[in-house]
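Annex B. Sample input.
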Amino acid sequence: MKKIVKLFGIMTIAAALLVSCKPTTEDPTNPDAGKTDTTVDSGKNSEAEAPGNNGSGGNGGNQATGGNSGDTTSEVIVFDAATATAPEGTEIVELDGVKYLKITPNQYNTSFVLPEAVNIAGKTKIVVTMKADADNEGFQAVVACKDEWTAVCQENKDPTMKPLSGTAKDYEGDLLDSVTQITRVQPMTQECKNWQAQDNITVYIAKIIAK
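Annex B, continued. Sample output.
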């Protein structure tokens, strides 16, 4: 029995020596060495993942681009009675402090050439400020702008004062996409029902602009 107890004691001492000799991977000067980092980086790639946060414009900003060869941001003056010289057969008059080109079209035979071609590339509308001697329900006035003799407005979309008005107003027309310039202005007056051209109605044109 004494031998068994003595043997058990020797085995216990041996086991203790083996445990104390086990190698360790831990750095005694750095208790965290060898441990896995489980911290989540919530800010990682946040700049790339957040749309519109790159500060470079990209597609997130509104960028003004030309897109069209013409200037689409401002009006172009085609004719202004305040600064124009009266074409032959017409006159510049002042009514209520506003200057007008006074013209009495001879059916479809009256037109005048601008001093120089006016570039309207990129514009979509033509606007004529005009009036007549007095209101007249039976007649209308049309101001057709041309490139030489080629119409620049869509068919039946020329600025039209219908009916005639003794008060100056803006009358708008739709330009063709293909036009780039205006060189000639052709005013005309007609009956509203049968479109018969007239030669005794006076029209006053203050300004023509493209926009």
